[in-house]
Amino acid sequence: MKKIVILQFFTIIFLLAITQNAHALVITFDDLQMNSPGDPSDEPFGFFDTYTYGGFIFTSEKYDGSPGQLSFPYQDNPNGYYYGSASLLNRHDGGITRLSTVSGDMFTLEAMDLHRHFQLETYTALVDFYAYDETDTQVGNQSYLLEDGEWHNIVFGEDFQDIAYVRWEQSPYYHQFDNVTVSLMQSDEGSGPETSTPEPASLFFFGTGLIGFALSRRRS
After folding, report:
1. How many CB atoms lie within 10 A of CB 137?
2. CA–CA separation, 203 and 147 (whole Å)
3. In 10 A of CB 1, how many CB atoms?
4. What is the band of 14 on the pLDDT scale with cuts at 50, 70, 90?
């Protein structure tokens, strides 16, 4: 009887571990994976003012602060600007891209893939990221220099946790971004799929549950 009670206790711990997770969303832009609807020489890119997915929204500003546009390369882009998967870019020199939640909830920016847009050997793309809280106060900054023609996975620090929005600027040249990983501490009501990312406390409970289960099996 005692062994059964111990097993039930660690089973409860295990269940808590797999349910107490932050909800992470990877925005892959897979819905933009398409060929040009017309002649790709005339229409190598698609354009729009905003992109919304899973409760998150991307917008664009020109260098002078006026509204801008986002674009994405079609798969049959004749200039070779499609790099293996659908991605977004800001279509303006010195353009600023902004990411926030549609609802205005705080979120965490965890990671993002970056790729320089042009493939000239002397071409480098500097990307400056700025995180802001709900009072429009800057709380974080990270910069990355893209010097080759590969995708780079960028992981953001703790200054990009629990923020209201993030803005990033391309200077002086263009870059593409993909696989944007964001998370909320509550379930997002958007349309995008979600995956659970365990938090450290959850991992502790998970490990404790497994150890207890193994000990109970050994004693029996």
Report:
1. 9
2. 37
3. 5
4. very low
Instruction: Please give the Cα distance from 181 to 27 (Å, whole number).
Output: 6
Statement to judge: residues 114 and 204 lie in one domain: no
- Please tell me whether residues 42 and 103 are part of one structural domain: yes
In the block, which residue shows the tokens 């965890």?
Answer: 110
CA distances 4 to 57, 61, 138, 161, 185, Å, are 50, 62, 53, 41, 34
Q: What is the CATH number of the domain that holds 123?
A: 2.60.120.1350
Compute the average pLDDT of residues 166-195: 76
- Tokens 């892959």 correspond to what residue? 28
Residue 149 tokens read as: 């023609």
Determine contact, residues 88/33, Cβ cutoff 8 Å: no
Rounded distance between C-alpha atoms, residue 57 and residue 21, angstroms: 23
- Please enumerate in sequence order all residues whose Cβ is within 8 A of that of 113, keeping only pairs 6 or more positions apart, or say none: 87, 151, 152, 153, 154, 177, 178, 179
Residue 146 has pLDDT above 50, yes or no: yes
What predicted TM-score, i.e. pTM, was given to this entire model? Answer: 0.75
Cβ count near 153 (within 10 Å): 11
